[in-house]
């Protein structure tokens, strides 16, 4: 408790920590400093305003420190010499240190736990991020980097099928398909020159696996008298193998020649074809009459966003069971979920009423580019 000293030029108050009596000059403004008894940090009260805020009960077991001799008028009164700490004072000081250490440990533990949780979430996101997920939609502001890839340059410059096969991934396996593809097409592909391709950012985990993604996006015609309003868009995945860097021909051909667009615009009953797609569990805007256990999915070309088709998939089929993971993820986030996949589509129905269906779900991601083929399973009953 604060009190007026016998000397009218002084004031006395008690240390909030050890309750020792401290005497200060009457006109001293609030000043911070160590207690002369226990060395705890204290601030002197403003006696001219109010002293009730720092009043504490005096501990009579503490011997009052002697009043210091007044200092000359030219200098403030010196602090009294510290007295030997009593057992109670030492215990209080020790308790304060323990409280501070416990507080720091708690803060450190919370920070470590937060860092640990964030690390787990980041790792989970990286593990679940599929190859090519940044292709569509792509909102990166990072400018494309022009690059001349030797494999791409040699492939595009080749005029014979045998020359091209030297730079194709899984060439012998795809040879029949590639030969059939070029039966009615010219092999000259210099209309998309290698020096016009640019690199596209892909997840670091995929880059570390030896994948590279190139993109071509330029006007279809450079004729000044007849300019084109649309661009030729091509994706080219390259993969490092023991035989060197090879081109994934299937993604290249699908995007350059817009084979998915041709397939959905020209239905031929019983025709099947494999495509690399962006699959989204997006309900149709005008759903037809379909069974209750059919789910609608949107299949989109990975670079031609306007080339898409809404397909109903029976939930009990192999494709329906594989695609159900999109619905589960979407239910958690309340937004449509998309992911890259390789699928085989087929035209069913009749020529009068053709119906596009998923004949088989082959794999998540792009086959031969990280995707693992899913074995065919019989429909559940």
Explain what this protein looks like in three dimensions:
The chain has 381 residues and is α+β, with helices and mostly antiparallel strands. The protein has four domains: 1-83, no CATH class; 86-128; 137-257, Nuclear Transport Factor 2, Chain: A (Roll); 260-381. 27% of the residues lie in helices and 24% in strands. It has eight helices and 15 strands. It has a five-stranded antiparallel β-sheet with strand order 6-7-8-9-10. The chain has a five-stranded antiparallel β-sheet with strand order 13-12-11-14-15. Residues 49-69, 75-82, 112-134 and 136-141 have low confidence and may be disordered.
Features:
381 residues, alpha+beta, Nuclear Transport Factor 2, Chain: A, 4 domains, five-stranded antiparallel beta sheet, 8 helices, 24% strand
Quick summary:
This protein is an alpha+beta fold. The chain is built from eight helices and 15 strands.
């Amino acid at each position: 408790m604060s009190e007026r000293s016998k000397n009218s030029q002084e004031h006395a108050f008690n240390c909030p920590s050890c309750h020792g009596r401290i005497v200060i000059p009457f006109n001293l403004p609030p000043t911070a400093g160590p207690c002369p008894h226990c060395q705890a940090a204290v601030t002197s009260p403003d006696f001219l305003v109010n002293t009730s805020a720092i009043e504490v009960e005096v501990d009579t077991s503490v011997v009052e420190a002697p009043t210091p001799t007044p200092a000359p008028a030219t200098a403030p009164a010196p602090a009294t010499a510290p007295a030997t700490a009593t057992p109670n004072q030492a215990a209080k000081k020790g308790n304060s240190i323990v409280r501070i250490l416990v507080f720091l440990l708690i803060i450190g533990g919370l920070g470590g736990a937060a860092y640990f949780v964030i690390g787990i979430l980041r790792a989970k996101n990286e593990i679940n991020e599929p190859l090519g997920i940044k292709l569509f939609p792509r909102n990166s502001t990072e400018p494309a980097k022009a690059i001349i890839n030797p494999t791409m340059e040699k492939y595009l410059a080749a005029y014979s099928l045998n020359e091209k096969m030297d730079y194709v991934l899984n060439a012998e396996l795809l040879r029949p398909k590639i030969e059939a593809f070029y039966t009615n097409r010219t092999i000259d592909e210099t209309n998309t020159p290698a020096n016009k391709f640019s690199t596209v950012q892909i997840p670091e985990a995929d880059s570390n696996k030896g994948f590279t993604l190139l993109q071509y996006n330029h006007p279809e015609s450079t004729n000044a008298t007849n300019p084109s309003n649309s661009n030729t868009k091509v994706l080219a995945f390259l993969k490092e193998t023991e035989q060197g860097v090879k081109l994934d021909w299937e993604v290249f051909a699908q995007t350059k020649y817009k084979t998915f667009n041709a397939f959905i615009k020209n239905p031929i009953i019983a025709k099947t074809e494999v495509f690399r797609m962006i699959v989204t569990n997006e309900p149709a805007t005008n759903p037809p009459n379909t069974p209750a256990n059919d789910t609608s999915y949107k299949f989109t070309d990975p670079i031609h966003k306007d080339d898409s088709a809404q397909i109903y998939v029976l939930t009990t089929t192999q494709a329906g069971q594989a695609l159900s993971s999109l619905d589960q993820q979407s239910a958690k986030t309340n937004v449509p979920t998309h992911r890259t996949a390789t699928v085989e589509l087929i035209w069913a129905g009749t020529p009068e009423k053709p119906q596009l269906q998923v004949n088989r779900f082959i794999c998540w991601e792009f086959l031969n580019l990280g995707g693992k083929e899913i074995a065919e399973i019989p429909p559940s009953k």
